[in-house]
Specification:
Layout: E1 2-6, H1 10-19, E2 24-28, H2 32-39
Parallel strand pairs: 1-2
Length: 48
């Protein structure tokens, strides 16, 4: 099953990580820097 999660805030990102344990998940966000960090396996804490 493929799942899309809109938003990578506190709720969206934790939900995406939880669901990714069993499913293929795509996280969407309007902030390109967040997506770049996630694609490079970096924490979003590095954005702050």
């Amino acid at each position: 099953m493929k799942i899309a999660v809109a938003g990578t805030g506190y709720v969206g990102l934790s939900l995406a990580v939880l669901l990714a344990q069993n499913y293929e998940v795509m996280a969407l966000d309007i902030v390109p820097e967040k997506i770049d960090l996630l694609n490079n396996k970096k924490s979003l804490v590095d954005l702050a």
